[in-house]
């Protein structure tokens, strides 16, 4: 049921009624609820990383947003005054920050073990009570199932040049290189294992997903790192002028083809 205007407003002159309505709208804005500011995550720790992940070259505007709180509190008008252009970029940024505020992220948004923007993923077997997992197969044991878990980075991080240089020099001189320490197996509690969104297991031990890179020499291990446009929602492109001009564009094309065929 539509709300009726107060009879007192209807008795006022037209300019006074318009001014009174504008005052009411201003009061509504003053009493608007305060937007909740989400906490940074290990994969998205700051403004620069957030803008890099959502893509569309918004990372170029990172200097215009001073803090994490400002990212989730600035209005569209304030973003415009800060120089975030064009308007579709502001709308896209505000759309993504509302998704993040509501816990909706892209691949890697739920990762806990991240170092220098790189997360290590591994295929591991965990106990399973599903009927389909009771029997053993060529790729898993009886009563087990394979999942992709996020573990502290051990082999996914790039090698440190400062540590690799002395070993290379010793090898050139003919001296035996020191034995490399073998990383201990990753221990975890099966109760704490949760599926990583956006990735899957293919060909028994390979991890696949957007932005996932396999680690050479380590089967069942992959890395996921922050890079430009990892979460980007790409814009569509018009085909034959779009829906409004499609018939016209195709008609002119057929006419031109007939002329060329003569």
TrEMBL record:
<protein>
    <recommendedName>
        <fullName>Small ribosomal subunit protein mS41</fullName>
    </recommendedName>
</protein>
<feature type="region of interest" description="Disordered">
    <location>
        <begin position="158"/>
        <end position="180"/>
    </location>
</feature>
<dbReference type="GO" id="GO:0005739">
    <property type="term" value="C:mitochondrion"/>
</dbReference>
<keyword id="KW-0496">Mitochondrion</keyword>
<comment type="similarity">
    <text>Belongs to the mitochondrion-specific ribosomal protein mS41 family.</text>
</comment>
<feature type="domain" description="Small ribosomal subunit protein mS41 SAM">
    <location>
        <begin position="47"/>
        <end position="103"/>
    </location>
</feature>
<dbReference type="InterPro" id="IPR019083">
    <property type="entry name" value="SAM_Ribosomal_mS41"/>
</dbReference>
<dbReference type="InterPro" id="IPR039603">
    <property type="entry name" value="Ribosomal_mS41"/>
</dbReference>
<dbReference type="Pfam" id="PF09597">
    <property type="entry name" value="SAM_Ribosomal_mS41"/>
</dbReference>
């Amino acid at each position: 049921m539509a709300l009726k205007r107060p009879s007192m407003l209807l008795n006022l002159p037209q300019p006074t009624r318009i001014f009174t309505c504008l005052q009411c709208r201003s009061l509504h804005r003053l009493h608007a609820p305060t937007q909740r500011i989400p906490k940074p995550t290990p994969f998205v720790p700051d403004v620069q990383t957030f803008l890099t992940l959502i893509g569309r070259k918004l990372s170029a505007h990172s200097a215009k947003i001073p803090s994490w709180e400002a990212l989730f509190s600035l209005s569209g008008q304030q973003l415009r005054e800060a120089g975030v252009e064009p308007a579709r970029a502001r709308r896209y940024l505000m759309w993504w920050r509302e998704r993040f505020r509501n816990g909706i992220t892209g691949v890697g948004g739920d990762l806990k073990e991240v170092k220098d923007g790189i997360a290590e993923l591994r295929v591991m077997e965990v106990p399973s009570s599903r009927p389909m997992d009771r029997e053993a197969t060529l790729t898993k044991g009886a009563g087990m199932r394979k999942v992709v878990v996020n573990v502290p980075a051990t082999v996914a991080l790039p090698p440190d040049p400062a540590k690799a240089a002395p070993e290379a020099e010793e090898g050139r001189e003919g001296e035996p290189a020191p034995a490399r320490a073998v990383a201990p197996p990753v221990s975890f509690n099966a109760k704490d294992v949760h599926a990583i969104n956006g990735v899957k297991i293919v060909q028994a031990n390979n991890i696949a997903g957007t932005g996932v890179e396999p680690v050479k020499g380590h089967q069942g291990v992959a890395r996921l790192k922050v890079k430009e446009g990892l979460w980007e929602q790409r814009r569509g492109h018009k085909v034959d002028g779009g829906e409004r001009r499609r018939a016209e564009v195709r008609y002119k094309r057929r006419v031109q083809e007939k002329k060329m065929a003569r």
